[in-house]
């Protein structure tokens, strides 16, 4: 069972992709929803709002503990920000640049090469962050110039873009196959 943090952001889109690939999932709204999860998706949205809502719903410490204990976690866009900020989950040692590619009007799409995928992945960047100064123990899976836009480390996968907004299910399959199973 994959949980989708359901406080703010691209929630239904992630659930739809998981349904499409035949993976059972549920909304995570409170601590009880964390029980029995095999993995967690932290969706794109607004990282500050998500963090405040996690605190309000008493989810932040519980989720941080689960991730630190090895719960497979996939963060997209705002999820990447939360996974890399020292004051948030602090799982990815790197410098995160929020809205690094610009504001809403600078949103764009780009085909990215991943070593793990045979064909390029068409990525949707909306007010996207990126990572710089990535620590040696963080695997950069895709980048644009010197900006890391997809990374992994241990039980964590993070993308600066929104794979849930395309018809391509390969990154969700990659998460399930390489992190959850």
TrEMBL record:
EC number annotated for this UniProt entry: 4.3.3.6, 3.5.1.2
Gene Ontology terms, MF aspect: glutaminase activity; pyridoxal 5'-phosphate synthase (glutamine hydrolysing) activity
Binding-site list for L-glutamine: 45-47, 98, 126-127
GO biological process: L-glutamine catabolic process; pyridoxal phosphate biosynthetic process; pyridoxine metabolic process
InterPro entries tied to this protein: Class_I_gatase-like, PdxT/SNO, PdxT/SNO_CS
Catalytic residue positions: 77 (nucleophile), 162 (charge relay system), 164 (charge relay system)
Keywords attached to this entry: Glutamine amidotransferase, Hydrolase, Lyase, Pyridoxal phosphate
Its job: Catalyzes the hydrolysis of glutamine to glutamate and ammonia as part of the biosynthesis of pyridoxal 5'-phosphate. The resulting ammonia molecule is channeled to the active site of PdxS.
Subunit field text: In the presence of PdxS, forms a dodecamer of heterodimers. Only shows activity in the heterodimer.
Listed HAMAP family: PdxT
Protein name stated in the entry: Pyridoxal 5'-phosphate synthase subunit PdxT
Lineage: Bacteria, Bacillati, Bacillota, Bacilli, Lactobacillales
């Amino acid at each position: 069972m994959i949980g989708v943090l359901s406080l703010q952001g691209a929630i239904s889109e992630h659930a739809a992709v998981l349904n499409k690939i035949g993976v059972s999932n549920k909304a995570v709204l409170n601590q009880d929803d964390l029980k029995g999860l095999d993995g967690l998706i932290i969706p794109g949205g607004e990282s500050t709002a998500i963090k405040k809502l996690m605190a309000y719903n008493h989810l932040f410490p519980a989720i941080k503990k689960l991730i630190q204990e090895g719960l497979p976690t996939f963060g997209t866009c705002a999820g990447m920000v939360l996974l890399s900020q020292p004051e948030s989950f602090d799982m990815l040692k790197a410098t995160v640049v929020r809205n690094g590619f610009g504001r809403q009007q600078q949103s764009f799409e780009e085909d990215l090469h991943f070593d793990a995928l045979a064909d390029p992945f068409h990525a949707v960047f909306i007010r996207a962050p990126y990572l710089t100064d990535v620590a040696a123990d963080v695997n950069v899976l895709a980048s644009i110039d010197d900006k890391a836009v997809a990374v992994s480390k241990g039980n964590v996968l993070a993308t600066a873009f929104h794979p849930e907004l395309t018809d391509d299910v390969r990154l969700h399959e990659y998460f399930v196959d390489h992190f959850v199973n």
